[in-house]
Amino acid sequence: MTPVLRFSSRSFRGAAGVDPGMIFMAAAMLLLPLGDTLSKLLAAEMDPLAVTLFRLLAQAAVLLPAAALLHGRATSFALTRAAVLSGCLVAGMLASLISAFAVMPIATAIAIFFVEPLLLTLLAGPLLGERPGPRRLAAVAVGLLGALVVIRPGFSEFGLVTLLPLVAAVSYALNMIVLRRATHIPALSLQCGATLVAAGLAILVVAGLSLVGEVRAPVSSLPAWCWAAIAASGLCAALSFALIGEAFRRSEASVLAPFQYLEILGATAMGYVVFGDFPDAATWLGVAIILGSGLYIVQRERRIHRPAAPEGAGRT
Q1: Half-sphere exposure of 165 (CA within 13 A, CB side)
Q2: By the 8 A CB rule, do 266 and 29 touch?
Q3: Model confidence at 17, in pLDDT bands (50, 70, 90)?
Q4: What percent of the chain has pLDDT over 90?
Q5: Is the pLDDT of residue 254 over 70?
């Protein structure tokens, strides 16, 4: 998973009448499951925390040089308070998700993770002053019930690991709030700083746990394909960030938000092709409830922030 940076800009359409932002967003959402699949494969060879570390290092190896070439060293490597907070949240999110991938199907973990827009709606009130109306609160409640539908059958099989995607969703939602409050910082600069912080935190945690034998990171004995998978996962993460950033630069957030749910389809396809996992009926029911609630909130946001909204229109 890559943090989504939301940019305020006017959307426009290409010569063929297709919004290019939609194309970039769709490509990013279909690319993210590839990185998650590689992480799940790597988790069979080493501890999920070690996978998190190597994935962050690979992402930094791709992202930071590219940022330096585009914007210069001083701009691209700034470490701010927002970058530190974002980096800690990103590290927690990735560690939680990859730990979940190691035990449960990717599609199930991603389905639970997609309560994030619902959690963001709740957290935006006390942290950003964006008070949701009763209809959106009702949609959030329904969506969380959908998450319970997904979690309940998995809980008996996977235990407390089933809650890790929820931890990741909370971390992601909080990270989105940090990014929204840090709009004065160039997006690429903030992302680079957050990547450095996340990688540094992962190094400290993995090194400390390795000393007491709690983390398995057999660097010297890893097969060659693992190093290729690590490099590819970092490349996927960096490309996903670039595509998402470009999508939000070209198109409005309300237009792009529904495309984020393509990640569930991509995760389902990759899980079935690579691991033979396919969600059961209860999981699909929960996914449908989560998607329906999320899309309803997106639609309400679009109406509320419509430029031509009539005077006195209340929030719902």
Answers
A1: 29
A2: yes
A3: low
A4: 34
A5: no
The number of residues making up the chain comes to: 316
DSSP 46: S
Amino acid at 73: R
Top pLDDT among 96 and 286 is at: 96
The whole-angstrom separation of Cα 260 and Cα 26 is 7
Lowest mean pLDDT among 132-136, 207-211, 271-275: 132-136
Token pair of 76 as six digits: 């691209």
Query: Which two tokens mark 103?
Result: 């035990």
**Phi/psi at 33 (5° precision):** -60, -25
Rounded to whole angstroms, the Cα distance separating 164 from 111 reads: 12
Pull the structure tokens for residue 275.
């691991």
Can you give the pTM of this predicted structure? 0.82
For 315, residues 6+ apart whose C-beta sits below 8 A from its C-beta are 131, 132, 133, 304
Those residues with Cβ within 8 angstroms of residue 55's Cβ, 6 or more apart along the chain or in another chain: 35, 39, 94, 98, 230, 233, 234, 237
